[in-house]
Amino acid sequence: MSEFTKVRFVLAVPDLARSTDYYTSVLGLGIEFTAPGWTFLARGSFRVMLGECTDAIPPGELGDHSWYGYVTVSDAAALYAEYRAAGAEFTQPLADKPWGMREFGVRTIDGHRIMFGQELQA
Does domain 7-55+65-119 have CATH number 3.10.180.10? Predict the structure, then answer.
């Protein structure tokens, strides 16, 4: 069976430069590649492709449908502290959940919501 080797999220954003700045300065992703209308970003195995779509419905107007990803991390508390210091907007504070995850949520500058979680040892 073929293995999945990488996952990339593709997001429509209204202002590519503004969104790229947010993902690099607040979420700590690095730029892998740019092309007209696109920025490819990464941090570890987390990959995002931002595509400029000035006429797309803003994610903040999608309500419950603005979720786009859950990212498992090695140290949720450290990442939460990093994002807090960088000025991220949180949708959920850092907390241990009954399903065995320590997690928190952020809302990006465009309104996408991302969850970050660490698997807790049983």
Answer: yes
